[in-house]
């Protein structure tokens, strides 16, 4: 996995190693004096016969015709030994032994520096090897951490994808329920308008049939039930709207978190696949900073779990709301159908009762007409009888009036006189009785005419009621929506 050792320049290492071998292969000049060999050291190094401080074979006086200066070096000046005077005719400053000692010092210093360089090279090589090994191990560990973190992000991403898919499905189901409630509210106006229109039609009934019967009571109950169900569905519709907002908010939050995790997963995947030979490696100043708004793994897991919990809570509330809506539909449709059945049964009974009453009124009208005809015949008979009795009265009165014209003793109260007077009296009583019966018959005729008018009016009222309840009302009730339409399907 690690590419750090591969980034090290192997050709440079081999060149350095070869150069080091060549340097080590060269003999150190000082080995002549420290080996077992008793060979005399080179002339440029200190010799055994050298004494310190050295003695010169031909001492040169500091004052002479060859030198115009004076001794400037002394033991007190920090330099041991005598130094000849150097003037413009000579450059001599050191003795041969000092020159050889100086050469020895140079070789010793060079040997120390070379040794130090070799030690430093060994240490540097060990350090580089250790650093590369440590960096390699650290890089492997970091890569494993990145892989582990990428797996964690991928795990949460998959959970969020499932949650988003579930919420999207729930939103579609709830949207279908919302449209269903809208259709139900629209369809529910039909039975409400049917009941209102039927009540308005029944208000056109005439006079005595304007009663608050069972049909009107059931229609009023149906209107109240439709209004109650409509209000309940409206409140449920508002709850669905609020639940839709909650679901969309939870879905948006989950999608935002999912989008962040997709971005993070891609970044971590790129980081895992990066190596030391990747062409996009650059120096990034400030990359090791810790932003103030960074989360920690605990808060990270808590945040994602909270998003998932909110999504699940919103989903469960939506499921519960849909279940409640199904219960509302089941109960409401049953109540509406039961009430519609009650209205139809009451209407059918009322139509049947009205038809029976109409039939009886028509029969009664026939009887009334028949009796009115008989009464009219009776009146004609009584009038004929009155006319006959009037003629007999006129006859008797004429006879009596003629007999009043008798003269003298002939004007006698004889038996015929008393008989005629009795006849006139009796006929008067009979005529009065017949006239009384005629008057009573005429009064009965008047009452029968009124009764006929009343019966005819009631028949008209009942026919109007039947027309409203049967021909128009029952036809109107046939437009009552079915259970499927009331359920919003």
From TrEMBL:
Pfam family, one: Tektin
InterPro entries associated with the record: Tektin-like, Tektins
UniProt-listed GO biological process terms: cilium assembly; cilium movement involved in cell motility
Region of interest (Disordered), ranges: 1-21
Localization of this protein: Cytoplasm, Cytoskeleton, Cilium axoneme
Predominant place of localization: cytoplasm
Coiled-coil positions: 157-184, 230-257
Protein name per the record: Tektin
Organism: Atta cephalotes
Gene from which this protein is expressed: 105617527
């Amino acid at each position: 996995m690690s590419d750090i050792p591969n980034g090290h320049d192997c050709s440079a290492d081999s060149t350095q190693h070869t150069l080091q071998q060549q340097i080590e292969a060269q003999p150190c000049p000082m080995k002549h004096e420290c080996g077992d060999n008793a060979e005399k050291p080179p002339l440029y190094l200190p010799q055994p016969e050298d004494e310190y401080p050295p003695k010169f074979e031909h001492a040169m006086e500091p004052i002479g015709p060859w030198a115009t200066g004076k001794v400037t070096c002394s033991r007190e000046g920090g330099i041991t030994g005598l130094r000849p005077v150097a003037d413009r005719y000579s450059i001599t400053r050191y003795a041969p032994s000092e020159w050889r000692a100086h050469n020895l010092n140079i070789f010793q210093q060079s040997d120390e520096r070379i040794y130090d360089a070799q030690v430093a090279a060994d240490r540097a090589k060990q350090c580089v090897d250790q650093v590369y090994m440590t960096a390699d191990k650290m890089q492997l560990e970091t890569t494993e951490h990145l892989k582990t973190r990428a797996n964690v992000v991928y795990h949460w991403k998959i959970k969020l994808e499932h949650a988003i898919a579930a919420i999207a499905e729930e939103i579609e189901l709830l949207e279908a329920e919302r449209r269903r409630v809208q259709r139900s509210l629209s369809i529910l106006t039909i039975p409400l308008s049917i009941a209102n229109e039927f009540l308005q039609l029944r208000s056109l009934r005439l006079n005595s049939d304007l009663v608050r019967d069972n049909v009107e009571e059931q229609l009023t109950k149906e209107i109240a039930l439709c209004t109650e169900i409509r209000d309940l569905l409206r409140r449920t519709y508002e709850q669905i709207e609020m639940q839709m907002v909650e679901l969309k908010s939870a879905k948006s939050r989950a999608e935002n978190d999912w989008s962040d995790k997709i971005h993070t997963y891609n970044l971590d995947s790129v980081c895992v696949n990066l190596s030391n030979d990747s062409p996009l490696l650059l120096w990034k100043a400030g990359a090791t900073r810790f932003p103030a708004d960074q989360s920690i793994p605990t808060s990270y897991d808590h945040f994602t779990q909270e998003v998932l919990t909110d999504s699940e809570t919103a989903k469960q509330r939506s499921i519960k709301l849909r279940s409640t809506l199904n219960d509302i539909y089941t109960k409401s449709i049953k109540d509406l159908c039961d009430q519609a059945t009650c209205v139809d049964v009451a209407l059918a009974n009322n139509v049947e009762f009205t038809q029976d009453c109409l039939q009886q009124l028509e029969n009664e009208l026939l009887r009334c007409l028949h009796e009115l005809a008989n009464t009219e015949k009776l009146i004609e008979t009584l009038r004929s009888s009155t006319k006959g009795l009037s003629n007999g009265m006129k006859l008797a009165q004429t006879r009596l009036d003629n007999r009043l014209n008798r003269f003298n003793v002939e004007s006698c109260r004889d038996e015929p006189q008393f008989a005629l007077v009795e006849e006139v009296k009796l006929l008067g009583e009979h005529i009065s009785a017949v006239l009384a019966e005629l008057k009573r018959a005429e009064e009965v005729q008047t009452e029968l005419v009124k009764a006929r008018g009343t019966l005819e009016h009631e028949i008209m009222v009942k026919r109007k009621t039947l027309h409203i309840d049967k021909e128009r009302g029952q036809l109107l009730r046939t437009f009552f929506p079915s259970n499927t339409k009331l359920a919003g399907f």
